[in-house]
Amino acid sequence: MKSDHQITDMHLDVLKEIGNIGAAHAATALSQLLGRKIDMLVPKVSLVSFDEMFDLAGGAERIVAGIYLRIQGDLSGSMFFVLPIDSANEFIRRLIGDETFDFHAVPIPEMGISAMQELGNILSGSYLSALSDFTGLKVHPTVPSLSVDMVGAIVSFGLIEVSHYSDEVIVIDTRIEEEGDDGNSSVDGHFFLLPDPESYITIFRSLGVL
Hints:
- The chain has helices at residues 9-34, 50-56, 85-96, 110-135, 151-162, 197-206, and strands at residues 38-41, 45-49, 63-73, 77-84, 139-141, 145-150, 168-180, 183-195.
- It is of the alpha+beta class.
- It has one domain: CheC-like (Chemotaxis protein chec, 3-Layer(aba) Sandwich), CATH 3.40.1550.
- Strands 1, 2, 3, 4, 5, 6, 7 and 8 form an eight-stranded antiparallel beta sheet that branches.
């Protein structure tokens, strides 16, 4: 890592705990939105290279639905949430009750775009609220934007800035599990967290693990 502020296993454990609390909040909000039980888990938080990040998402050329937002307030940085296109289609179809919805459609139906952005609002808001509760810092997301494109194209914007001071990304694995009439189904996605350099210090100092 090019930054002088090394992230340790202890830091990742803290971020995982924050992620699990955020996931629990998000699951409650999604359950209310969908009218059925949703569970969310954070199986793993890791620090990976840019190449490893692309591999986790299925390769830089894999088409995904990606949500991008900036983190503002006492912390700053970029956050991406990416879902495989088939998983995104399935989730949004259930959310809006339209089995014909398809992110491959041109143009993408506005209702699906709005639903995916709302999912981004719920997930990012829940994670950042948990981070704020843990640290006492005021932090909030910008309005999320949606792209359906190759992973490399979606995240390249955020990497341009972060690559000046780091060659690694914090990855928060996220599993969304839904109970339905046909049993349980799950969707696996990834949060890519790219704090600006000074925000690393702010986060871990506030947690007492600098």
